[in-house]
Design goal:
Strand 2 and strand 3 form a beta hairpin. Strands 2-3-1-4-5-6 form a six-stranded mixed β-sheet, with helices on both faces. It is of the alpha/beta class. Helix 6 packs antiparallel against helix 8.
Length: 302
């Protein structure tokens, strides 16, 4: 039997649905999904099997106009993911259409994805009427020679199977890159940290989530089959520490409970999660923090 394997990069504006699509394709939650933009920092690889093909998805940070070092490193990681892939899938939100951001991405695709097959996936199709969808499809295909166009809803699953089947057939022939039962190549320590960061992002107001990071400092698999995980939440200011802790520690307690349950479900065992909050005013300028997030500190330089 001829096997196929390769990398598929999902690119698009922040909140276009890349993480949701990755999780839908893989059938498990390997990338954090929140209502806030720019939550995916590292290029997370999820692995899916379709027939004799192994699809390795690279979920890149959203492409946007960067302002800070962290933003610049995220955008560099996103384009790096596209350059490394066999196939690139551009996600565009149906109800938002051709925004200035989408225009910029399409203009950059020619040079950044040279030699790569590029497919278009119009996401959230349940939010628009058919005539508007048709007009958007024609407009986008007039701007770039996409190999194929798909109408999908990553959240509801519409059209996702068609996209996965097409990707499986378009990948190069070759041996599988990962063991059959592996769904992600991220270390479980980072998946655990990302899970906690998702819960923080969901509970905190607009700006703070981008001023904090979570690192897994301790991991102990116990004889009784459970796992103890110690994590540190780094914030940039003293005032942020109080926000993360919440009144009488309510916020951190709720975050810990939600993260513990999800990490335990992912690992298939009981998890004891211990969270600490530390103030590190300059963490956004520390190379070590970027390495923990799977980003290159040098890419953030102006």
């Amino acid at each position: 039997m001829t096997t196929r394997a390769g990398f598929v990069a999902l690119i698009g504006e922040p909140n276009a649905g890349k993480s949701t699509l990755l999780n839908r394709m893989v059938g498990a939650k390997v990338s954090i999904v929140t209502h806030k933009v720019q939550t995916t920092r590292a290029r997370i690889r999820g692995v899916a099997i379709e027939g004799a093909a192994q699809l390795v998805f690279v979920d890149t940070p959203g492409l946007f106009r960067p302002r800070r070092r962290l933003d610049r490193a995220m955008v560099a990681a996103a384009w790096g993911g596209a350059a490394d892939a066999d196939i690139v899938v551009l996600l565009v939100e149906a109800h938002r259409g051709v925004t200035a951001g989408v225009e910029e991405i399409i203009e950059s695709l020619g040079a950044r994805a040279e030699g790569r097959m590029v497919a278009l996936a119009i996401n959230k199709i349940d939010r628009v009427e058919a005539p508007a969808l048709l007009a958007l499809t024609e407009d986008l295909n007039a701007r770039f020679p996409f190999a194929e166009t798909f109408m999908i809803s990553a959240e509801k699953g519409y059209g996702v199977e068609d996209l996965r089947r097409w990707l499986a057939g378009a990948l190069p022939e070759g041996p599988w890159l990962y063991p059959e039962d592996q769904i992600a190549d991220l270390p479980v320590r980072m998946i655990a940290a990302e899970t906690t960061r998702e819960k923080l992002t969901l509970r905190l107001h607009q700006e703070l989530p981008y001023q904090l990071t979570v690192e897994t400092e301790g991991w102990e698999d116990r004889k009784d089959g459970s796992t103890r995980i110690d994590q540190v939440i780094y914030v940039a200011r003293d005032g942020h520490k109080g926000i993360v802790l919440g009144k009488k520690g309510e916020t951190i307690k709720a975050v810990s409970q939600a993260a513990r349950a999800e990490i335990g479900e992912f690992l298939g065992r009981t998890v004891h999660l211990f969270l600490q909050v530390k103030v590190r005013p300059g963490w956004l300028e520390e190379a070590e923090r970027y390495s923990e997030m799977g980003l290159d500190f040098r890419d953030g330089a102006e």
